Amino acid sequence: MDVDLFDFDLPSERIALRPVRPRDAARLLVADGADTPFVDRHVRDLPDLLRKGDVLVFNDTRVIPAQLEGRRGDARIGATLHKRLDLRRWQAFVRNAKRLREGDRIAFPADVVAIAEQRHDDGSWTLAFEGDEPVEVLLERAGQMPLPPYIAGKRATDENDRSDYQTMFAREDGAVAAPTASLHFTHELVSALDAAGVARETLTLHVGAGTFLPVKAQNTNEHRMHAEWGRIDAATADRLNAARAAGGRLIAVGTTSLRLLESAVAADGTICPFEGDTSIFITPGYRLRAVDGLMTNFHLPRSTLFMLVSALMGLDRMKAVYAHAIESEYRFYSYGDSSLLIP
């Protein structure tokens, strides 16, 4: 498909630079797949919008401070880690990479040093970190939270982002971008969902910085997604299948949860255990089998995530959803408002 089909005009003032407080006070645009009016609610209303027996599926990945600023000699080098390769080596997008050669040592703050080991065809680099301490420990000393460029380009990262850009479900270290739909949940909201009989399950997908990369191809067939590592264990898959068999709907909380579920689903709709890399790219024409709905924030024009929601709901319906959101002054992107999409 032509990428221009997924373009739309978004006023810059609609981009949220900070989250609302409390988190569940964010607005929630509710839309189904029919030509029915949209409903404007709040995230805290979810217990009234879902059914007993429904299951919310969360991503329990934890964002690591994967943004590094350092030097190679007199050259400033910026690195955003996006995929672990082994205990000491990460693949990274590098700023000012033209000043870097294989074998160069990059000095980051707090005596953290990495070797530029290999340049890849996509322009990214393998960085090998020196020392014996786990890389995650080094990042806690030297790194910053990797805010999306549409936020980081407008303000500096600060200490508030350490908590604001982390979900209450975060448990497994490895993401360099938050599963932002889950940022809206609070302990009070989870308790209300429990009381309403709405179940919850977790899976793990370590979101990479590739999620922020623009689609440079003119046709979606020519775009290649960066691989991300994910896991659904057998017990979780069994519970999800049982809930669906009993009539419950599986609602993915965030596009990351949806993409991993679709990577693990069989042709008959059965969700299977999964562990490994996925580079699934969902565009209109793809038939979703694993989910019955999606809760997600509002995404960038021409992005792979807007293509995904258009596959779920239909491109015309999603353009109408976004037009309503812009007109109604919803807040967009990672720290913005959310939507509940039931095709």
Automatic annotation (TrEMBL):
It catalyses: 7-aminomethyl-7-carbaguanosine(34) in tRNA + S-adenosyl-L-methionine = epoxyqueuosine(34) in tRNA + adenine + L-methionine + 2 H(+). The keyword Cell membrane does not apply. Pfam families: Queuosine_synth. It comes from the Bacteria. Its EC number is 2.4.99.17. It is an enzyme of class 2 (transferase). It is found in: Cytoplasm. Pathway: tRNA modification; tRNA-queuosine biosynthesis. GO terms for molecular function: S-adenosylmethionine:tRNA ribosyltransferase-isomerase activity. Transfers and isomerizes the ribose moiety from AdoMet to the 7-aminomethyl group of 7-deazaguanine (preQ1-tRNA) to give epoxyqueuosine (oQ-tRNA). PANTHER family: S-ADENOSYLMETHIONINE:TRNA RIBOSYLTRANSFERASE-ISOMERASE. Monomer. This is S-adenosylmethionine:tRNA ribosyltransferase-isomerase.
